[in-house]
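Components:
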Amino acid sequence: MCAATAGYRGRSVLLLEHSNKIGRKILMSGGGRCNFTNLHNSPSNYLSANPHFCKSALSRYPAARFIELVERHGIDYHEKTLGQLFCDVSSKEILQLLLTECDWAGVDIRTDSTIYRIDKNADGYRVKTSAGIWQCQSLVIATGGLSIPNGGATPFAYETAKQFGLKVLPLQAALVPFTLQPKDLEVFKPLSGVSHRIRASIRDTAFVENLLFTHRGLSGPAILQISSYWDPGAEVEIDLFPELDLLQWLGEQREERPKADIRTLLGQQMHKRVVQTFCDLWSFEGPINRFDSRQLAAVADAFHRWVVKPAGTEGYRTAEVTRGGIDTDEVSSKTFEAKKVAGLYFIGECLDVTGHLGGHNFQFAWACGDAAGQYV
Ligand SMILES: Cc1cc2nc3c(=O)[nH]c(=O)nc-3n(C[C@H](O)[C@H](O)[C@H](O)COP(=O)(O)OP(=O)(O)OC[C@H]3O[C@@H](n4cnc5c(N)ncnc54)[C@H](O)[C@@H]3O)c2cc1C
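Structure:
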């Protein structure tokens, strides 16, 4: 995005990619259909030490601008859920869109280019690579975060930032499944593959979406979203009935079907195997008329406030993004140029701006690519 924008301004642009293919994450995104933006995108969809930083770029390049580009390239798309836009056919179309734009803008793309060294000199930057030595006036680092190391991710952006004396905030895998403590895994592993709508919360942040039990722990959109707010050792509170007042409903059931087993009744509201697992765990069994009001309140409370202490996360191997990164205080929110290093720019995921699940990470990447592309 940055290369094409700069190319259209008549700049001579060289794009260096260390792997043999560009845009790998685009190809693997959205289950192969690339969730390329979100209709409801706003600055509130991002985590950052400075929540205001992303505002300028997003307001200059909102989701509508990328949608317009997608339409101009004749790519069919649809809204899946919650404003998330996906290609009808394939992620390849989004990569092709960018390649076409780069081609029209005269960008020279070189793959298999390992960058060995960057030196600042009087004319800008001297970049020594496996494919030759280049001299440039502006150098844009857009090498992303640490997730999916076997897909080409490297810590290059963070190392370059440090080389030029810029602060890098602590990094952590985000939008990532949780692993469970061994005793919890023993209980929940048999539910592997089952999903259920929940509210996952940490302090005052909550997401109501699906949870997916896995053979390692917990995943699904609600878990991926809340994982971005999780720190090792913290607890996650899960409401297994986010849209039901369980105490009231159980009270009504006790009136209407007093002899019905509590598990049978709960089985009307969630997957029977999930009911059985939790009822075994908390020893809830028998006809509902044997539960007095205090016991019924305890049942409702247990299901509304299941507290999980994850063992950890699956880490960068499966994380969609990296939380933290180059301190946004070091970079102009207008141009993305490093404030104390003229001609050096950082854009995309390497910055301390982490989007929610749902197309927000690409939207930020497009927006800052467009912004920096106007100034390099
Ligand atoms: C499995 C998966 C699915 C995802 N799905 C979505 C989705 O549907 N919607 C969404 O919004 N976000 C999604 N994301 C997140 C999104 O892909 C990233 O946030 C986004 O790609 C970041 O863009 P970027 O340009 O900053 O970095 P990247 O897209 O990671 O691009 C960085 C590029 O730099 C190259 N590179 C790395 N190191 C070097 C080096 N040392 N020298 C030269 N080149 C280097 C890499 O090979 C790569 O091509 C997904 C991520 C993953 C892992």
